[in-house]
Automatic annotation (TrEMBL), chain A:
Top-rank lineage group of the source organism: Bacteria
Keywords, sorted A to Z: Cell membrane, Membrane, Transmembrane, Transmembrane helix, Transport
Stretch forming the signal peptide: none
Keyword flag Transport: yes
Family recorded in the similarity comment: Belongs to the energy-coupling factor EcfT family.
CDD domains recorded: EcfT
Function: Transmembrane (T) component of an energy-coupling factor (ECF) ABC-transporter complex. Unlike classic ABC transporters this ECF transporter provides the energy necessary to transport a number of different substrates.
Pfam families: CbiQ
Membrane topology: Multi-pass membrane protein
Organism: Domibacillus mangrovi
Protein name: Energy-coupling factor transporter transmembrane protein EcfT
From TrEMBL, chain B:
Localisation: Cell membrane
UniProt entry keywords in alphabetical sequence: ATP-binding, Cell membrane, Membrane, Nucleotide-binding, Translocase, Transport
GO molecular function terms listed in the Swiss-Prot or TrEMBL record: ATP binding; ATP hydrolysis activity; ATPase-coupled transmembrane transporter activity; cobalt ion transmembrane transporter activity
ABC transporter domain residues: 6-240
Major localization listed first in the record, in broad terms: membrane
Protein name (Swiss-Prot/TrEMBL): Energy-coupling factor transporter ATPase
PANTHER family noted in UniProt: ENERGY-COUPLING FACTOR TRANSPORTER ATP-BINDING PROTEIN ECFA1, HEAVY METAL TRANSPORTER
Entry GO CC: ATP-binding cassette (ABC) transporter complex
């Protein structure tokens, strides 16, 4: 089950998309979220859909893998689709069973909105699939850098993000260990009523919290001992490089939005 | 050999809101290039001393001089560049998401330029034999490997002194050996001054000089040879004498003529099985 969820996972590869600057990818996604809403007819949806599949193709992520991983989200898409089909009352009546009347406008709207939803999910999951989490953090830190001028602690937030990412596997291991230890003492996590199961989690969470705080304290001491004194005067080991490829992607995006604008009114 | 790297004079320290005194009028010198082991059981004050050497505590009384700087809040960052510290828990000192990021962390903090940083990260990982793991994430490394990365992170800053605060106590025997071998090499080849704080006398046996702390006071000082002669006394302080030392003592008592008291089992075994060859 867990292996199939792709949200937040990174798939190493050497594709063009992988090699892009994380800042370009982030900007791209911010823009894409807006651009998707420009699509309003068959032509524009076809264009933006084709564009999305081009990116998927370029990223060398297997389409089957992508769809398989998005299954839980697809249910949600399907749900949105039917919501629109049943509740939009526009255009000609298609069919009628009992109380339910299905309108043509509803079906069209349902298709468009679930398509929009799907495209957004595809593109955002491509971001995490093609960018290591640490690069996403670096990209965010760099993009939001100007906010430092208005006293937003951008560096601190980025460091917090990267430390959290680094400790996820450590804490998962620890949870596993505590779970085994509590099982050895007779704890039961997998049977009984829901309220019993929730109660069974408490002896798991408390030791986990205690140890996480202890870790945090030790980490803080270790960081201080290694000369950490805040973002001031700090250099960066990871350097983001904006290349031609990234500029091209931005240009491409502008062309796409222009095309969408023109096709919109057809 | 006898240039003083650290000089501690009449240092006392008491934790806030605690009655007992953690360090009581301790004076000692650490010489450049030596390997000094500071041993003592829990609560002997050795960890307090370690933290003090890195400016995580300041002495209530007395003075600490490290590499020509007096320990105070002004000099503390300069001192942290001279003295690097490796802590006990391998996980809780690993800051970066990958090996190279972690080694670079200290360099980033000190504002080292990018080009220099890349060179130093690689060079330090080479010294601890971890270059093959450049892009590994910490949870794929063993405890010993993580501690070697921590050492690389310390030496990347080119300190004069490396302080190991129980750095091997959470490792398995293999990891312990790995880390000690790395430290020995740095001590011999790079002339790095090593202070290892430990309750493991086998680790202390590798040092040039051993200092025993007890209840916040300096109990005794000497070469590992001298210290292990104390035998019973050490046991009373809550420190176990290594098995090889006990065994060679018992064998000598039983009338066997050994060339020396052995610190490690391998040496003892090889002397035992070659003992009668010359006859």
């Amino acid at each position: 089950m867990m292996e199939k969820i792709i949200f937040g996972r990174y798939l190493p590869s050497d594709s063009v998309v992988h090699q892009m600057d994380p800042r370009a990818k982030l900007l791209f996604i911010f823009a894409f979220v807006g651009i998707v809403f420009l699509a309003n007819n068959v032509m524009t949806y076809a264009l933006i859909g084709a564009f999305t599949f081009l990116i998927v193709f370029l990223s060398k992520v297997k389409l089957r893998f992508l769809i398989g991983g998005l299954k839980p989200v697809l249910l949600l898409v399907l749900f949105t689709f039917f919501l629109h089909v049943f509740f939009t009352k526009e255009g000609d009546i298609l069919t009628q069973f009992g109380l339910l009347t299905i309108y043509k406008g509803g079906v069209i709207k349902g298709i468009f909105i679930s398509l929009r939803f799907l495209l957004l999910i595809l593109v955002t999951s491509l971001l995490t699939l093609t960018t290591p989490p640490i690069s996403v953090t670096d990209g965010i830190e760099s993009l939001f850098g100007p906010l430092k001028k208005i006293k937003v602690p951008v560096h601190e937030l980025a460091l917090m993000m990267s430390i959290s990412l680094r400790f996820i596997p450590t804490l998962l291991d620890e949870t596993d260990k505590i779970m085994k230890a509590q099982r050895a003492r007779g704890a039961d996590f997998s049977s009984g009523s829901i309220s019993n199961r929730v109660k069974a989690i408490i002896p798991l969470l408390i030791p986990l919290f205690v140890s996480a705080f202890k870790r945090a304290e030790e980490l803080a001491v270790a960081m201080e001992a290694r000369g950490y004194k805040g973002g001031e005067g700090r250099t960066k080991y990871r350097i983001l490089r904006w290349s031609m490829r990234d500029t091209m992607a931005m240009v491409f995006l502008v062309v796409l939005s222009a095309a969408l604008f023109i096709l919109r009114s057809y | 050999m006898n240039t003083i790297a650290i000089s501690i004079k009449g240092v006392s320290y008491q934790y806030p809101e605690q009655e007992s005194i953690a360090l009581n009028n301790v004076s000692l010198d650490v010489y450049k290039g030596e390997w000094l082991a500071i041993v003592g059981h829990n609560g002997s004050g050795k960890s307090t001393l370690a933290k003090m050497l890195n400016g995580l505590h300041y002495p209530s009384e007395g003075t600490v001089m490290i590499g020509g700087y007096a320990l105070n809040e002004e000099n503390v960052w300069a001192i942290r560049e001279k003295l690097g510290m490796v802590f006990q828990n391998p996980d809780n000192q690993f800051v970066g998401t990958t090996v190279q990021d972690d080694v670079a962390f200290g360099l980033e903090n000190n504002g080292v330029e990018h080009g220099v940083m890349e060179e130093r990260v690689y060079a330090s990982l080479e010294k601890v034999g971890m270059t093959a793991f450049l892009n590994q994430e910490p949870h794929h490394l063993s405890g010993g490997q993580k501690q070697r990365v921590a050492i690389a992170g310390v030496i990347a800053l080119r300190p004069d002194i490396i302080l190991l605060d129980e750095a091997t106590s959470m490792l398995d025997p293999l990891g312990r050996e790995e880390v000690m071998d790395t430290v020995r090499e740095l001590n011999e080849k790079e002339g790095l001054t090593v202070i290892s704080i430990t309750h493991d006398l086998e680790e202390a046996a590798k040092a040039d000089r051993v200092i025993v702390l007890n209840e916040g006071r300096l109990y005794t000082e000497g070469t590992p040879q001298n210290i292990f002669q104390l035998d019973r006394e050490l046991l009373n302080l809550g420190l176990g004498v290594p098995f090889a030392v006990q065994m060679s003592q018992l064998l000598t008592d039983a009338g066997l003529h050994l060339s020396q008291r052995h610190f490690n089992e391998e040496e003892l075994v090889s002397e035992l099985w070659t003992l009668n060859f010359e006859r």
